Amino acid sequence: MAADVNQVAQHILSRNENWYFDQCGEIGGETTYELFRDVVAEHVGVQREQVALVGSTIYGFSMSPKGEKTFSAFHDESDLDLVIVSETLFRSVWNELVEAYHRGYRWVMTRHADEIFRKFALLVNDGNYKTNVLRKRVKLLDGISKQVYLRTGSSRPLKYRIYESQEAAVAYHASGLAKIKRKLENDS
User: Which pTM does this prediction carry?
Assistant: First the structure.
């Protein structure tokens, strides 16, 4: 079972087709998934191949293993789940989280321990990052949203996961696919 979900996860992360850009019709016809990836890559200083969208933008429905979200259609409240694979960026964010923790922001360990254990960092701009280093990082990531809007026309909120490696990204997504597979097998 592990080999097939790993292969599917790898395929999802490396595919050049994307339902949101190719078929959804929400944004202009000249805007492509490749342009989206180029905008993000340029903004954070990585290669296009290190950027991917996952989730409901891929097929038009959710691949989340979480209860009612599984196979739910892309909808008005859907965000864009962005994967950035960069050991350098991951290490930088990890160091910033550690620095914040040592400066007295103990909540960062509670909030980020689970994801860091799985070799990714999920940053959202919810106003909780009170240290200069983390505010600066969130500002950089929010700059992606602005560039994406200006250059592609997509105003969907972005949710960022920064992975240490391609292997970590594949492992995370393969784990979710394995949960869906078990759920489907148990339901049949």
Answer: 0.90
